[in-house]
Specification:
Layout (H helix, E strand, L loop, with lengths): L13 H7 L2 H8 L1 H7 L1 H11 L6 E5 L5 H9 L4 E6 L2 H13 L5 E5 L12 E7 L8 H11 E12 L6 H11 L20 H9 L3 E16 L2 H12 L8 H17 L6 E14 L1
Parallel strand pairs: 1-2, 1-4, 2-3, 4-5
Antiparallel strand pairs: 5-7, 6-7
Length: about 280
């Protein structure tokens, strides 16, 4: 959708909704396998940390095209998993994939986690794999997630560490900047690194109904393509917005820079960049 989402959205999330229920979400849906593969090294550690039991009811926040929800539903074999996301395109694909995989205990809903009226205390576990960094009002979102969890329910989320620990964003953004000074988002603004400071994450969670908050650092390689050509196209679709406002010379320079860095990171069995995340656990008080 290009104008407004079909669901109620907190005004603080309006910009995120326009992106995720528009072109950005459509790109992620069209390249679902590549995005899942890019963070594959984190997937099993994330699920293991969530500790989902067979009878659990699981809420997956920012589920995207549903890989984490499907695997949560498999673990909660006699329970149920609900995946929510702002993107109608990704939710539609998630439903189709769950049906194709024969997973009957996974549900998907286009919804805004900040304001969606979850039944109080209805989930045992909440999970999010790189989905909670985009809240326009994170305090409202985490408070709403806490209300959705039963007392003693668990939250497990994977978020990015800062750019200094993520070679992929440093290298790729520098390449596409082509010598320009691109403005950095304000600290804490919605985006991939809004929860990069674990102390900020702890404070947010502690103020919204959680305790026992722990953050564990993980470092794994991220996959961006089978070879340099594949990675060049994938990254350009993901970060091509950085070329806005460039003239022909700057664009050519940026594309050449991008070609150079993905070629330098082509291992012969895929294009990989180093990355770092925080695996954060908390308990609903």
């Amino acid at each position: 959708m290009t104008e407004a989402t079909a669901v109620d959205v907190d005004p603080a999330n309006a910009e995120q909704a326009r992106a995720w229920d528009g072109g950005e979400g459509a790109y992620w849906a069209a390249h679902a396998e590549q995005f899942d593969r890019s963070v594959a090294a984190y997937h099993q550690p994330f699920l293991d940390a969530a500790g989902i039991a067979s009878g659990d009811k699981v809420l997956d926040i920012g589920c995207g095209t549903g890989q984490t929800t499907r695997d949560a539903a498999r673990a909660a074999s006699s329970g149920r998993a609900l995946g929510i996301d702002l993107s109608a395109q990704m939710i539609g694909l998630a439903r189709r994939l769950a049906a194709e995989h024969g997973i009957a205990n996974a549900d998907f809903e286009q919804a805004d986690a900040q304001i969606h009226p979850f039944p109080a205390g209805s989930f045992d576990v909440a999970i999010s794999r790189t989905g909670t960094m985009f809240f326009g009002d994170p305090a409202a979102a985490f408070a709403n997630i806490a209300r959705a969890l039963r007392p003693g329910g668990r939250l497990t989320m994977l978020v990015w560490q800062g750019p200094e620990h993520n070679e992929w964003i440093r290298e790729l953004s520098a390449a596409l900047a082509a010598g320009r000074d691109l403005p950095a988002p304000p600290p804490g603004a919605p985006g991939p690194f809004s929860l990069a400071d674990p102390e900020r994450a702890r404070a947010l969670l502690a103020s919204t109904g959680f305790s026992g908050i722990e953050a564990h650092g993980l470092q794994e390689p991220m996959w961006f393509g089978t070879d340099a050509d594949d990675a060049h196209g994938f990254v350009l679709g993901l970060l091509g917005w950085m070329l806005a406002g460039t003239d022909g010379h700057q664009r050519d320079q940026a594309l050449g820079n991008l070609r150079a860095t993905v070629t330098a990171h082509d291992t012969g069995h895929g294009v990989f960049y180093q990355s770092g995340t925080w695996l954060i656990h908390a308990t609903r008080t």
